[in-house]
Amino acid sequence: MCHRSMRTLFLPALLSAVGCVGTVDHSQPTAGAASPDEDPTETPTFLSAAFGDHLPGMTADEITRFNEGETEFATAETVADGLGPVFNDTACGNCHTTPSVGGNSSSVFVTRFGTTTFELEFDPLERLGGSLIQVHGIGPAANCNFVGEVVPPQSTIVAHRRTTALFGLGLVDAVDESTFFFVADFEAANFPDEAGFPNVGHDIKNNRDAAGRFGWKAQNPTLHQFAGDAYLNEMGITNPEFPNENCPQGNCALLACNPKPGLNDDGSGVTKFTDFMTFLAPPPVPSRTLAAALGRAKFREIGCNHCHWASFKTGNNASAALNQVTFHPFSDFMLHDMGSLGDGIEQGLATGGFIKTAPLWGVHTLTKFLHDGRADSLENAVLGHAGQAQGARDRFAALSDQDRANIIAFLNSI
Questions:
Q1: How many domains does the chain have?
Q2: Are 270 and 241 in contact (CB under 8 A)?
Q3: In the chain, what's the furthest Cα-to-Cα distance?
Q4: pLDDT: is 48 or 348 the higher one?
Q5: DSSP states of 318-367 as a string?
Q6: CB 357 within 8 A of CB 333
Q7: Cα atoms found within 13 Å of the Cα of residue 79, Cβ hemisphere only
Q8: What is the pLDDT of residues 126-153, one digit of tens each?
Q9: Tell me, what's the pLDDT at 287?
């Protein structure tokens, strides 16, 4: 549990340890930049956008960039492009498919592994290819044969992560960093037993530490870095922010056979991928039924909104499509101790039990739920919560069948 007293004493020490005190903005954002309670029906900005559409209000140049980015996103990389030598897939679009390009997948998972040292610290077993498995290899090259990696026997922690949707991530990227620290302070003051805190990662491009917001552990602070990370770790495409190849199963000597050494992407591919995500509209808001409206009230009543914040607002932005826009992700983007629901993997400030609150927008498109797909229904997903979410879970379980059904109807209307 992350009680207020722990956060007050513990988080500043962590932030200081990673060198971010004085380099990230803790000031309170403009009023209304985030709210746990605002109802999406009050600001229906994206009601008309379909899955896979671009944001409304974009310029002709931005639409061109979006379209070129979508093409890059869907184009398969080849060995001649620098694919591999180990990788998970040949194109980003192969994994992000449902219900449209840029979406999620209930069948595509990545695997991470590691172990715990005698000092009880997480060891990602990088010397054995960890912590992320690349399941494919490019095959014979020079005197080598590149094959997919496997979880080594030395691993005592194995975690699977579901492919998430990319809808609306440009809006998340456009939120002023101070908003996330405001959210953390608000939660600590108003519901300390459930309060989260932001991950802090190194912003490579700007050479500063910054609040994370992308990835299951909020390990990436910017959308551009999130894209470059995926190019390297999912497809093996090196790029300016991630210039070093992954050593297959940790054996760096094999890279002598790499048919495409050096920088595979000069940054243009990563930029196009970023453009696609930046201008990709959030999920359209389904019709709201009476049951969903009643479920919305119960959702608030049992405290689900303590972590699943309804509304955020972007800051000042050169793009009109991203400037001062209110959107409704139903996440606080904070790390929370999820107890038995944690995956054991450590990334940045997120130790094994901590996971970023998953945004709920578009959740009605899923068939597998929670980070590892262990739940086959929304109701089972709620009942699978643990750690800091145990109180809300128990209050949900104690509701009548009708009240629980209304909450599920509300979730399906987000």
A1: 1
A2: yes
A3: 66
A4: 348
A5: SSGGGTT-EE-------EEE-GGG--S--BTTB-TTEEEPPP-TTGGG-S
A6: yes
A7: 12
A8: 999 999 999 999 999 999 999 999 999 9
A9: 85
DSSP 135-182: -EE-EEETTEEE------TT--EEEEEEEPP-TTHHHHHTS-HHHHHH
Residue of 378, 390, 261 whose CA lies nearest to 337? 390
User: What pLDDT is stored for residue 22 in this prediction?
Assistant: 34
146, 129 in Cβ contact below 8 A?
Answer: no
CA of residue 378 relative to chain centroid, distance: 19
311-315-318 Cα angle (round to 5)? 135
Q: Which residues span the domain enclosing 252?
A: 4-411
Distances (CA, A) of 216 to 257, 259, 335, 379: 33, 32, 9, 21
For 15, half-sphere exposure in the C-beta direction (CA atoms, 13 angstrom radius) is 20
Both tokens of 29, joined, read 């954002």
Q: Which residues contact 395 (CB under 8 A, 6 or more apart)?
A: 302, 303
- Do residues 227 and 274 lie in contact, with contact meaning Cβ atoms separated by under 8 Å? yes
Strand ranges (DSSP E) for 207-250? 208-211
SS3 220: strand
pLDDT band, residue 15 (cuts 50/70/90)? very low
Closest C-alpha among 403, 384, 402 to residue 393: 384
Given the DSSP bridges, would you call strands 335-337 and 86-87 parallel, antiparallel or unpaired? unpaired
Mean local confidence (pLDDT), 366-379: 96
Instruction: Identify residue 359 by its one-letter amino acid code.
Output: P
Helix or strand run (H / E) with residue 201:
strand 200-203
172-183 pLDDT, tens per residue?
999 999 999 999
Give Cα separations from 23 to 20, 29, 178, 203, 209 (angstroms). 5, 16, 11, 11, 7
Which residues on neighbouring strands pair with residue 206, listed in sequence order? none
Give the whole-angstrom CA distance, residue 272 versus residue 38: 33
- 276 confidence band (pLDDT: 50, 70, 90): very high
